[in-house]
Amino acid sequence: MSTMSRNIHHVAQLCVDGVVAEVTYKPIKNLRLRVLPPDGRVVVSVPLGIPERTVREFVHRHSEWIARSQTEVRAASPAPEPLRDGATVRLWGRPLDVRVTPSAGGSAALERDVVHLAGPDEEGLRRALDTLYRRELAEALPALRREWEPRVGLGAASVKLRRMKTRWGTCNSRTAAITLNIALAERPPSALEYVLVHELVHLHERGHGPAFSAWMDLLLPDWRARRRALRTAG
C-alpha cells in the first residue's frame, strides 16, 4: 500500500443513543472522542480497520460524558452578539461598551471602558475587534514570557496569535512554536497565563500524562481551577 493510500481519511456519520457522531477513519492507534464548540458537535477519530460495531460501543460507553460535555460547550459558546452601538464585548474578562462607525476600512480603539470599532459590515467589525485583541495580547505576552520561560526551563522559538475554533493554544514540540487563540483576550489575564504555561510545559512533555500534570502542579498549583474556569465561563 502506498503512503498516499495509507493516509486517506474516510468520513462517515453514526447515530448512537440519539447522538449523531462524525466519524473519521485515520492512520492512528487509538479511538479518540471530542465534543467541539460552539454547538457540541461530536467527532470520533477511528484507526483504520476498526469495525463499525466497535465505534458504536465506544460512543455508547461515553454517552454520559458526551451529554455533559455538550452542555458545557454550548454554555461556554453562546452565539456572538451583533457588533453595533450599545453592544458589549469582553476584554480581559471585563464587559465593555461598543461604539460603531460605518467605514470602508476597519479599525479598533480602546478609550476607557468603550471599544470604538469602524468597518463596512459585521465581518469587517469582527476583524477590527480581533486586531484590538491581537494588540492587547502582544502587549501582555513579553512580560509573561520573561517570567515563565526561565521557570519552565525552556522557551518558545515563536508565539503566534490566531483565531481558533477548538483550542486555546497549541505547541509544536519539534519546532518550539506556540500558537495562542486570539479569544484569550476576552478572558481574565489568569487564563492567558495558564494557557501559556500549559503550552510551554509541552516543550518538556508532549502528552497530558502524569509527568505533564506534575510539571503543572509544580509551576502553577491552581492550574486545574483555571482550566475549569476557561472551559465553563460564558
Gist of the model:
With about 230 residues, the chain is of the alpha/beta class. It contains seven helices and eleven strands.
Overall outline = globular
CATH topology of the largest domain: Zincin-like
Rg over alpha carbons: 20 Å
Strand content: 25-35%
CATH architecture of the largest domain: 2-Layer Sandwich
By CATH reckoning, the class of the largest domain would read Alpha Beta
Strand segment tally: 11
The average pLDDT score comes to: 89
Query: Given the structure, what is the number of helices?
Result: 7
How do the strands line up in the largest sheet?
1-2-4-3
Output the CATH homologous superfamily of the largest domain: Metalloproteases ("zincins"), catalytic domain
Give a short account of the largest sheet.
Answer: 4 strands, mixed
Helix/sheet category: alpha/beta
Number of domains: 2
Low-confidence blocks of residues = 1-8
Proportion in helices: 25-40%
